[in-house]
Amino acid sequence: MKAKILLAEDDMNLGFVIADQLKSESFDVVLAVDGAEAFQKFHQEKFHLCIFDVMMPKKDGFTLAKEIRKQDAEIPILFLTAKSMTEDKIEGFKHGGDDYLTKPFNFEELLLRIKSLLKRVQVYTEDVQETVIDLGEYRYDTENYQLEHPAFTKSLTKKEAQILTVLCKHKNQVVSRETLMVAVWGKEDYFIGRSLDVFITKLRKYLSEDPRVQIANVHGIGFKLELGDNE
């Protein structure tokens, strides 16, 4: 089953990045930019899970969840917030929330929480993620962070592996710097951007044995994992 998620996030850049990442994991995502729009969309379509930012214009996440709970007591609700105070978490649960994730967050953690919440309501998603990916002369084991080549085997760091996994999911497509930063670090800023460039340089070095495999720089946007010979 392809689970459908209602995402309400007033930070448009972050909202688009989260939505794109969830879509790459085979979720159907509807994005709303404020609480009022999310409430309207909730009545227009059928959803399996809701993800609400707490601080939103027109209708905040707590109010939105409280109103939705009056009509649907079962749908899982996950709050996203910049606050980490225990009182705020308790407030979220009082308003019908099932889980709570503090910004910045790692996308992998968000994905695990989503899958856990869906299992509670017996919505099982088909995991289509490849665990071993062929990249020209290379084989990439995503679970064990191993990059294998006939001449060597390289153990990747966790962040190297996370970056390469995102690029592999979008082979021959441009992936924005923002998408990579949020997916791996949970946020974007200048210093994380510099770290990202360092990791990209390392990955290029690891992949340099096969000229068909390139991580191209798309100026002003991001990167593209280019594979020759229709890989």
Overview of the molecule:
It is a single chain. By secondary structure, this protein is an alpha/beta fold. It has 2 domains: 4-120, Rossmann fold (3-Layer(aba) Sandwich), CATH 3.40.50.2300; 132-227, Winged helix-like DNA-binding domain superfamily/Winged helix DNA-binding domain (Arc Repressor Mutant, subunit A), CATH 1.10.10.10. The chain is built from 8 helices and 12 strands. The strands form 3 sheets. Strands 2-1-3-4-5 form a 5-stranded parallel beta sheet, sandwiched between helices. The chain has a 4-stranded antiparallel beta sheet with strand order 6-7-8-9, with no helix packed on it. The two termini are 28 Å apart. The relative contact order is 0.12. The model has no long low-confidence stretch (mean pLDDT 88).
**Rg of Cα set:** 19 Å
* Order of H and E elements: EHEHEHEHEHEEEEHEHHEE
The level 1 CATH classification of the largest domain is: Alpha Beta
* Secondary structural class: alpha/beta
**Strand order across the largest sheet:** 2-1-3-4-5
Q: Based on Cα principal axes, name the global outline.
A: elongated
Strand element count: 12
Largest sheet: 5 strands, parallel
Would you give the CATH topology of the largest domain? Rossmann fold
Q: Give the helix proportion (percent range).
A: 40-55%
Task: Give me the CATH superfamily of the largest domain.
Answer: Response regulator
CATH architecture of the largest domain: 3-Layer(aba) Sandwich
Low-confidence stretches: none
- Helix count? 8
Kindly report the average pLDDT value: 88
